[in-house]
C-alpha cells in the first residue's frame, strides 16, 4: 500500500475533517454498511445517470488494485448501483472499497463479503445497463467535488475527501489534531479538577463567565 494512503488509514475521519475545517465531508447519510469498515485509497470516479450502472462495471474493469470506487449516482435511492455479485468481483480484483451517493442491494451477501461499502442504504431494484456514464472524470459525490486520484478516507463516522495537491498538509494537520486529542484525553479523563479547568477554559474562550 502507498505510504501516504497507509498513514491516512490510521487517522480518524473526524481529525481529517477538522484539518480541512469540515469542508470536504460527504453527505452524512453516506455511511458504512458495517460500523467496523474502514478504507483509504485513491479515488477512481464514476459518473452515471440515474439507474444505469454499466459505468460501474467499466470502472471495476479499469480501476487499479487499492483504488476506491467513488460513484455519483445522483442520490438515487430506488435502483442499486450493484449487488453482492458485482461487488464481489470488485473485491477479488483488489479494489479497496466503494463509496456511492446512492444504494446497493443484496445486503446480506454484501456484508458476507467483508468489503468496505459506504452508501445511503439498500434497495431491491437492479440498475439498468443502457451504456451511458463516464469513468475517471471529475464528479460530485455527496455534495463534495471528487477528482481522480484524490484520497478517500472512510470509517464509522463517514467519508472525507482529501484533494491530492493538499494531502501532505492535511495529513500533518490531522495527525497533530489526533496527538493533541490523545494528550487532552490522557490529562482530563477521570480527573474532576482537570475537567472543570478545561470546561472553564472553553467557556472563557467563548466569552462566557463561570
TrEMBL record:
<comment type="similarity">
    <text>Belongs to the class II aldolase/RraA-like family.</text>
</comment>
<feature type="binding site">
    <location>
        <position position="106"/>
    </location>
    <ligand>
        <name>Mg(2+)</name>
    </ligand>
</feature>
<feature type="binding site">
    <location>
        <begin position="83"/>
        <end position="86"/>
    </location>
    <ligand>
        <name>substrate</name>
    </ligand>
</feature>
<keyword id="KW-0479">Metal-binding</keyword>
<protein>
    <recommendedName>
        <fullName>Putative 4-hydroxy-4-methyl-2-oxoglutarate aldolase</fullName>
        <ecNumber>4.1.1.112</ecNumber>
        <ecNumber>4.1.3.17</ecNumber>
    </recommendedName>
</protein>
<dbReference type="Pfam" id="PF03737">
    <property type="entry name" value="RraA-like"/>
</dbReference>
<dbReference type="GO" id="GO:0008948">
    <property type="term" value="F:oxaloacetate decarboxylase activity"/>
</dbReference>
<dbReference type="GO" id="GO:0047443">
    <property type="term" value="F:4-hydroxy-4-methyl-2-oxoglutarate aldolase activity"/>
</dbReference>
<comment type="subunit">
    <text>Homotrimer.</text>
</comment>
<feature type="binding site">
    <location>
        <position position="105"/>
    </location>
    <ligand>
        <name>substrate</name>
    </ligand>
</feature>
<dbReference type="GO" id="GO:0046872">
    <property type="term" value="F:metal ion binding"/>
</dbReference>
<keyword id="KW-0460">Magnesium</keyword>
<dbReference type="InterPro" id="IPR005493">
    <property type="entry name" value="RraA/RraA-like"/>
</dbReference>
<dbReference type="InterPro" id="IPR036704">
    <property type="entry name" value="RraA/RraA-like_sf"/>
</dbReference>
<comment type="function">
    <text>Catalyzes the aldol cleavage of 4-hydroxy-4-methyl-2-oxoglutarate (HMG) into 2 molecules of pyruvate. Also contains a secondary oxaloacetate (OAA) decarboxylase activity due to the common pyruvate enolate transition state formed following C-C bond cleavage in the retro-aldol and decarboxylation reactions.</text>
</comment>
Amino acid at each position: 500500500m502507498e505510504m501516504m494512503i497507509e498513514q491516512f488509514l490510521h487517522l480518524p475521519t473526524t481529525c481529517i475533517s477538522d484539518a480541512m475545517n469540515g469542508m470536504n465531508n460527504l453527505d452524512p447519510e453516506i455511511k458504512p454498511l458495517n460500523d467496523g469498515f474502514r478504507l483509504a485509497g485513491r479515488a477512481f470516479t464514476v459518473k452515471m445517470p440515474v439507474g444505469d450502472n454499466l459505468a460501474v462495471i467499466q470502472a471495476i474493469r479499469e480501476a487499479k488494485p487499492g483504488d476506491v470506487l467513488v460513484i455519483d449516482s445522483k442520490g438515487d435511492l430506488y435502483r442499486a448501483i450493484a449487488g453482492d455479485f458485482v461487488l464481489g468481483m470488485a473485491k477479488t480484483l483488489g479494489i479497496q472499497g466503494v463509496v456511492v451517493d446512492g444504494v446497493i442491494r443484496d445486503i446480506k451477501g454484501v456484508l458476507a463479503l467483508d468489503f468496505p461499502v459506504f452508501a445511503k442504504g439498500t434497495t431491491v431494484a437492479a440498475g439498468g445497463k443502457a451504456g451511458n456514464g463516464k469513468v475517471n472524470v471529475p464528479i460530485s459525490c455527496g455534495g463534495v467535488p471528487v477528482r481522480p486520484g484524490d484520497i478517500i478516507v472512510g470509517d464509522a463516522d463517514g467519508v472525507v475527501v482529501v484533494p491530492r495537491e493538499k494531502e501532505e498538509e492535511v495529513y500533518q494537520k490531522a495527525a497533530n489534531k489526533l496527538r493533541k486529542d490523545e494528550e487532552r484525553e490522557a490529562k482530563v479523563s477521570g480527573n474532576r479538577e482537570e475537567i472543570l479547568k478545561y470546561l472553564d477554559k472553553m467557556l472563557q474562550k467563548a466569552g462566557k463567565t463561570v
